Amino acid sequence: MKADFNSRNNLSFSSSWYDKFFESLPNKNIKNPEKFNKIGHMLASPHWNRLALGIAAISTQPAFDYFNPRVDKDTAVTSALRTTAKIGVCTTVGFCVRGLSYKIAEQFIHGSKKEGSILLTPKEILKEKNPIKKSNMLKLHRNTFSTVLALIAMIFTNFYLDAPYTTKGANYLISKYYKQKSISGGEND
Amino acid sequence: MTDKSGLNIFEKSLKKLSDKVYRHMENGSGHMILLTSMSAILLSMIAQTGAILTNKNYSLSQKAFMVPQELTEGCITALSMFVITKPLQKMSDIYVKRGKILTKDMKNYLQKHNVLDKRGKSEFNLENTINNFIKKLETSEKHTNSDIKLLNEHNNMLQTYNSVYDTSSAISTTAGGVISTAFISPLIRNYTASNFQDKNIKMYQQHTNIKNHAVNIKPYPKI
A127 contacts in B (CB within 8 Å)? Predict the structure, then answer.
């Protein structure tokens, strides 16, 4: 089965309320296209995307856990500290694994021999004559391949790095919290 | 260890994987990236649940909360990622395709080719419009210098359009991920996990006949 890179054209939106809704939305003009595309390029790379999600998660999830009214204080604190450790470890490992996979994909998936090795470039892409279509296919293939490669690596890193280091990090934070609590005489309760 | 093609086992398996990924990239790469992200979340959930169960520093009541919390988080994040990201991706598709979001160059291009008034209309498809212009020029028998210049202009515009499309798609996918991981998932998982904690502890007390087990749970407000 051959990949269909033009499938995005096949989407049809025939519903009238849908059309009316979109027509009522304001038109937008991009003032700085270079900056806009730079952001897009970063977010489309799997490792930067993982970092963005990690930052978003660490800024809200521990707070949700700490202020959870449905559990006792100890469980809320333990849960918040474990979440902090988990997001910290998983984001760091995820960023590194995805970054490495992306580098491998970048190194071996190219459009021409001049740019580097074409070891992992599928024949169908190399045969494509339209330069715009070819560059799009290469970009899509690079991103998808690196994500799949990272997923395979993560089968191991989840068990050998993420889980044990989350436990270590959580235990460290929890012991530090209780140590501080015992020094202050449980004033925080 | 190399074979006839001069590749070692590592390179050969990477090549095989790359070809397989390409052949399964139906509907573009978005579908596969979303699927792999969901698989990664579920994998992480299994590993983290194992880590909680084997951690001796957590009390029984804490484990009774954190195990369902982890399981719910994995399932909810994967599900909400799919439910929220897909419509956002579709919205961004429509927005770009109908020309509702344009750069200054794109706006000038549409004005030059007398299609700017169609911008934002449901029947307008910017990508198809550019492709039709290109097809028209490519199929014409004679190619004058101005035709070649025009063809380059259309090709450049298609490149600009693709960049805007990719950026919008990346922003909408990330926005979907942020909404689901930072807000929806923690809210739902905490509510569900506390209910599970309550049930798990009650079940444990019934099985062990320990009425005064040190579970130390404060009554929580029912929603």
Answer: none
> How does pLDDT run across A110-169, given as a tens digit for each residue?
765 555 567 778 877 878 777 777 777 787 788 888 888 888 898 899 888 998 899 899
**Residue B170 has what pLDDT?**
86
CA distance A105 to chain B (A): 9
Q: For position A2, what pLDDT does the model report?
A: 41
Tens digit of pLDDT for each residue in B102-140? 999 999 999 999 999 989 888 899 999 999 998 888 887
Which residues lie below 8 Å from residue A59, measured CB to CB, with a gap of 6+?
B182
Domain-by-domain residue ranges, chain A? Answer: 45-182
Contacting B residues, span 36-65, partner chain A, CB-CB under 8 Å: 36-37, 39-40, 43-44, 46-48, 50-52, 54-55, 57-59, 61-62, 65
pLDDT of res. A111: 60
For residue A119, the model assigns a pLDDT of: 73
What is the residue extent of each domain of chain B?
59-208
Q: Which of residues 197-216 of B touch A (CB under 8 A)?
A: 197, 216
- pLDDT per residue over B165-215, tens digit each? 888 988 988 898 899 889 998 888 888 888 877 777 777 777 766 554 444
Interface probe, candidates B29, B55, B117, chain A, greatest A C-beta count within 10 A: B29
Q: Which two tokens stand for residue B116?
A: 């700017």
Which of B62, B81, B85 is most worth mutating to test chain A (most A CB atoms within 10 A of its CB)?
B62
> Which residue on chain B is closest to A49 by alpha carbon?
B174
The larger pLDDT score, comparing residue A30 to residue A189, is at A30
How many CB pairs lie under 8 A apart between chains A and B? 257
Mark yes or no for CB contact B181/A33 under 8 Å.
no
- Return all residues near B143 (Cβ < 8 A) that are at least 6 apart: B137
B35 CB neighbours in chain A (<8 A) are none
- Between CA A60 and CA A64 the distance in angstroms is 6
